[in-house]
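Narrative of activities, Objective 1.

The group set out to show that a structural description can be obtained from nothing but a protein's sequence at a throughput compatible with the screening campaign. Below is one input-output pair from the validation batch, recorded exactly as produced.
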Amino acid sequence: MHGNIFSNPDNSTDASDIKLTSVEIWGYGFLFVTIINLSSVLGIIFFPLMKKSFYAIIMRCMIGLAIGSLSGSAIFHLIPQAFELSHDVHKDYIFVASFIWLAIWIVMILESTIKIIVKTQAV
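Output recorded for this entry:
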């Protein structure tokens, strides 16, 4: 019972050894896409109920969350897999990818700051 909780003491099948059928793959894919789409519909239901000033703040946060999650997923998961960069061979990739992700966030923060400055100067 000692050691890693992910160790396999009884030599049962490993998670990487489990093969799913094409029906199971499509079923899980359809299930999770449906859950994601329904969560966006729930968000749309609550937006008209909010006050105008609070709505702008929530939208800015939602856009930031979308940019962060999509850019993070692309930089940390999709690009390394597309170029077959393994963690053993390319250990510096995580360091470089972190700076790329940080740069995307800085650009978004700068854009938001410039919009705020321009809006206050116009008033």
